[in-house]
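Risk register update: the risk of archive-format incompatibility is retired. Evidence:
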Amino acid sequence: MNTAGPSLLAALAASIGLIILLCGRFRLHPFLAIVIASYGFGLAAMGIGAATGSEKPFVEDLGGTVAQGFGEILASIGLVILFGTIIGKVLERTGAAVTLAEAVLKVIGKRHPALAMSVMGWTVSIPVFCDSGYVVLSPLQRSIARKTGKNPVVLGTALATGLYASHTFVPPTPGPIAAAGNVGIGSAGLVWVILFGIPVSLVAALAGLLWALRRTEHLRSGLPELEESFEEYKTRFERLPGLGRALAPILVPIALMATGSVAAFPSGDSTLVSGDLGDFLTDLGAPVNALLIGVILALVLLPPRRDATVLTTWVAEGLVDAAPILVITGAGGAFGALIKGTPIADYIASLIGDGSTLGGPLALLVLFGLAALLKTAQGSSTAALIITSTLAQPLLPALGLDGTLGSIPIGQVMAVLAIGAGAMVVSHVNDSYFWVVSQFSGMDVQTAYRAHTAATLVQGLTALATVLALGVVLL
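Archived output:
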């Protein structure tokens, strides 16, 4: 083990470097990059095992291990990701996202337009991808900029950072869901990712808002005269759903998951709610069941008069959105299975010793750095979340991040949040979101770097500081 450990660690580092190189330099899709790196690591591990005289191969069946890892992770998290993306697509296409935005604007008022942009962005991006959310809300942003005379760059940055914050931290957005599944958080634990992710994301959103207000006022937008007001944009929808109906597909699954977790909370020799009722609440609160109910509630939003193909088309669009996430998640599961087959985690544990050198909060910093490196290199926050969480899962015990707080898998939750913070740093030209924000806000590349890219750096670092503070107290 002592002789194989350094070689395995070097092989893992080389595999991570290969993913970054293939995604960043050669623009290869993350799915193929992870698969190639997985096979590279697997072959290296087989060679290292043979060269060091291991009693049994580190990887006995390379293809079988890859297939098994791919299938197991999708079996545990695949439907959850699919249901989450379908909910988001229906909310977008039925105008429910517009309803949520109007409700936020009514509560906050038009005297604080930047705050309104940030809050509505944060709210809408919980079920809807941040790219889609920005496109949906951009007519409102531009209308408010025109009515209030507020700089469109300020409002655009506030909206972008609000969307970005919940996108990387709060399920049912697929990225955080996939990361939670990858680090081994079961169905009962997903609600804790939501409950801890909400305050961390709000701190990140506040950091983005303050950057927009204090650092972008002097920047100028090249937006043309407004072509479509928000009121005109609303006429695209036959009838906007009410606020209660728009919120139900988001809040009901979260409430069900929370209820299931509370019911399963240990109490003496049993759980807080035992018997048939406890089993029912626990089953109902399983993420796959709760989100299926969310899908059904989302379908209620469909207009009564619609073309027969509308529902099929919208669901198909949701499946298309989910497909890249599913295949990247599966590839990540394959890589993780190969890592688990080697004794690399034991070697890292021997390096850490009693945890005084690298463990707990300091380990969170390592996960943040890896996610930030992957995000900056290949552009996708979702891919950075998935890849980093895959690599982290076999190493969590060695990093001191497998502890619990009662029934809360606090080490794994903190790991997901640290990875989410890293997945924010930074959004630049290789990120599709960078171009959505810059084009819909009328920013040239230099302005977008100074406004949006710098804001995502501030958000990521602020979120990291928040996660580290939580780690010091809770780990």
